[in-house]
Each structure stands twice: as structure tokens, then as C-alpha cells.
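Sequence in, structure out.
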Amino acid sequence: MRAVKFFKHPFIIALIPVVAALIGYCWINYRNTCPTIEKNDISQLIAIEERLFSDGIKQGEGPTYIANEALYEDIRNTVDFDLANDKRDVLLGNYFKATNNPLFSHVSMVSAHIANNVPHHGVTYLYGSAGVGKSFIKLPITKIFKQDSCVINLNKAIRTGRKYGSIIEQSPQLYSEQYVLGELPRIKEPASFKLNELLIDCGCETEVSGQWKKVVIFDDLDEIHPESSKLILELVNDFLIKHEQYNPQGFLMVFVIGRPEAFSTWLSDSHHSYVKNFNTFTVKGPGFEYVSDIELMAMNYFMYVRHSKPMKDSVEALKKAFQKKNYLFASSSSNLSNANHSLKRLIENPDYTDAELKEKLFSDYLARNSGSHNRPERREEKGETYEHLLQNIAVKYSDSLDKEGYFEVDISDNIKTLHKPTNKSIDVFGDLSNCKEKTLIFNVQQALEFSGIVNIEPVNDKIKRYRFRPFWVHRFLVEKRNNRS
């Protein structure tokens, strides 16, 4: 009876709506901070995968193999490993020339201008997705220009930025509040950075002081912070314009190589004038399409990675393994790095299930990008938060794909992800013991760019099109998200 009277007390009755509202508020806050996992439909992803991977490996000998059959045979019969490896470089270069014919026609034109003393000033941007073979493609280019060229690896070069008048610092590129998932070296004092001192230090000056080699190649533009990438492109552009003004009968050609995201900010800025001869090319992979091309894939992996020539039995075994997994060959055919990862795992165990193989390959992709762009590996402390972020992005855009698997992302698009604190992260956010998790908000474009697992196509200065690369990664991430509890 006393309990009944207690709940009929006017004060208690008045308090009930307040308590109910408080419980509702706490529940909503909990749902926002610690949301439940909902299953996501993958039928559209499966349909696109089937369309993209349906062709599989083409049987027989491909045209590029036939055109280079004598070189193949020469490599097989060359006993000296170093000599055979040099010939392997030539053979792989021929595959790249077949898929990048407009680029190499442009390079031949530049070479002819040098040979005929034709005055020329210009800049050429070469961009392509992670692992496609951008760094390899500079080898045949430098061989064409020989002593007339120099190469500047920007990531390594600007780390000694004090020599060029500026301090270099690691600066966040992907972050939420104080929590950083990716950082890249940035030129802290752009106004004081001296490009000419960088050129001199990297061997781009001729024996005559103040005169430059005819061809300068900047590589790894994407391995520095986007602000510094834009600065380098601006300085190179201004340097060429001034060089032509003061030396109109001279010659200076600059190639800049990197992923598309390193160029996008500069190219979308319309408030500047380009040097007169300005060109852009998208670097395409070697174009392995036929069963015969798997031999070169094996040659490249064994000779470049393992420093040994592949045995004939190994090549035949790899041909059989690839023909069982169309999606794997499709993701390796136009990407040199993916091909090496695929070969590594097939040699390790040709009987991996698809699920096992994709787990290992995805780890390989993140590990490769961790070394070049400071994103977390799966095994690292921040690896789980980073992978959950990628999974949430894959889910968010899985219903808005075009027929090729691309989706559009606006510059203002953000995504939430849960962060489970460790001892280190508690130091950043304070005590999160109430929920054990915290909701972080990241910019989607910043997350996808420099991730090493997407293709990028700018639409305008605010919207970009992305596709996970290889495409099976999109479905893989959605399924991982579905399986989280």
C-alpha cells in the first residue's frame, strides 16, 4: 500500500515525464554513439562484379607476347641474372608502351626536339592509381633521355627541407578532432622554400653553373601533403614560365608523376596560367590479358621481388591457379603491384579459399600504403578504426554506383565511425569508460584519397568519382561491415 501511495504522490507523478524524457535522450545518445549494425544488400555489387570479371583470362598468346616472343626466349636462355633482369625491364617496358602509346609518342617528340635543338619549355603530368606502375614507367623514360635528365623523389628530397629554406613537418591529412589516421610530410613555410636549391641538390644542374638539364622528373608527388603538392606544382609552373622568358631559345621539360589526388587541388584552381606546353596523361597498367602474359607476371615477381628466375613448373602452376580465379586475374591484369601481391599469395598457397585470399590481399594493400602514405595497417593500434571507417564508406555509397562501380563524393561529405579506445587513445580523448566507444567524424574524400585502394576521377572542384580498386574490395568491405557485431 505504501508503494502505491508513493507512486501516486503528486511530486512523483510530475517527475515521471522528466525521467522518461531523460531516458529517451540517453537512449538516442547511446544509439548515435554506439549504433547497432544493420545488414546491407550486396546484390548490386555482385552484379557489377560479374560484369567486370566475366571475361576472365583470354586463352592463347596475346599480341604483345607475340611481338616480344624473341625477347622472352632470350631472357629464358640468359644465364647471367643481372643481364636477364635488365632484359626483363625492357620486356615489361614494352608492355607499358603498348598500353600507353600516346604518352610514349609524346616522349619521343620531346626526345626529337632535344636531338634537333628545337627550343621547348613544358610540363607533363603523369598520374595513375596506386601500384599501377608509375615509378616503373619512369625507367624507360629516363633511358630515352639518359644524361640529359635527372630524377627527384619528392618524399625523400623534401624531408631535408631545411637545406631548401623551409622546415618540414608531419602534418595530418586524415583526422577527426585530435585523432589522426594519416599524416604526410608538409613544407611548413612555403614562402621560403627554394626550388632551385632542390634542383641543384638532386643533380639537375649541368656542369655550367645556373644551367639545367633538359629533362627534370619529379616522382612521388602524392607522398607529400596535398598543400605541399600544390606548392611544388605552382613553383614548377612559375619556374618554367620564367625560364622561357629569360631563355626563349632554351630547353626545359618537366615530368611530374603521382596519384591523381596529388594534382586535383592544383588542377581545379582556375586562378593561374599554365606554362605554354602543358600535357596530362593517365598512366595505364601493363595490360596482362592472356594466359601467355602470366609468364611475364611471374618473371617480374621472381626477378624483381625475389631476385631469382622463375622455374618453368612455377609458371605453369601459376597459369592454372589464375584460371581458377577470374576476379584475381582481373584485379592483377592492369596493376603491377596487385599482380605481385596475387603471385605472392598463390605461391604461398594455391588452395586458399576466396575468403582467405581476399583477407590476405586486403592486408597486403593496406601494408603497402602504410609504408608510402602513413595510413594504419590492420595489425596496428589504429588499424581497426581505420578499417571500420573504410567499411562504413563502402556501405554508404553501395546503393549509388554506376554500371562501372563508380560513386560520386562531394567535398563536404562526412562519415561517422566508432573508435574503441586503448590506453593511448584515452590519453587523447579523456576517459571513455562510460560507453567504451566514441563516434568520430571523418571527411570521405580525405579518407579515400591516399588510401591506395581507389581509382579517382575528378568531376569538378567539389565532386569526385571513386571506385574501389580492385573492385572486389567494395563488396569485401560491405560484407565485413555486415559481419560485425
